[in-house]
């Protein structure tokens, strides 16, 4: 959580970084108010004196101040911190009451179920099953290529693989564990920020099922779920830096 001081520093330095002329305390007070920070010109003047002392700004007489290179470095640090705080807030809102450990537990359970689903799909899938899996994969690929959200087609893909396994108990267990796809948007949100490659994973799994290679399909599915787990860990570590 950022402090009031950090919020002030961020807004003040941001305003000065966008100005081609020196910014005075009165003008800064008005602009800060527009940004939602109601701070008097006198208080701003004292804060700016601290900026001068720390080398983040340079005073130009009564005309105001400009940001220094040191100030730009500080602004970049604050911007990065605020970005991760915003991501963390959005993430927790998306998860609702979920926690990192809870999400990893869910993915771990999924790993055990879906490794067997993938193995059976490679053995028992029919041409019709393969067609449905490929259709889901192609829909997902098109959405990913256009920058769209793919969580709905991700769910369709995994359900198609589960159906191809011809094991209704495992298919039902997948739906139960994954809460009917409720957490798919969460995983997409995470992968968006840690550069996860879900479409590539699915392409490999589809190829193994098409080739009737149960061992390869199983290993690829395990790798896919473990990649999801790694993404959760990586995202949480990045988010907690804020």
CATH architecture of the largest domain: Up-down Bundle
The proportion of strand residues reads under 5%
The total beta strand count reads: 2
Figure out the total of helices.
11
Describe the oligomeric state of these chains in a short phrase: single chain
Radius of gyration: 26 Å
- By CATH, the superfamily of the largest domain comes out as GntR ligand-binding domain-like
Question: Topology, pairings included?
Answer:
Blueprint: H1 4-17, H2 25-34, H3 41-54, E1 57-59, E2 65-67, H4 69-95, H5 100-124, H6 127-145, H7 151-164, H8 168-177, H9 184-194, H10 198-210, H11 214-240
Antiparallel strand pairs: 1-2
Using brief descriptors, characterize the structure shown:
single chain, 242 residues, mainly alpha, Arc Repressor Mutant, subunit A, Four Helix Bundle (Hemerythrin (Met), subunit A), 2 domains, two-stranded antiparallel ribbon, 11 helices, 2 strands, elongated
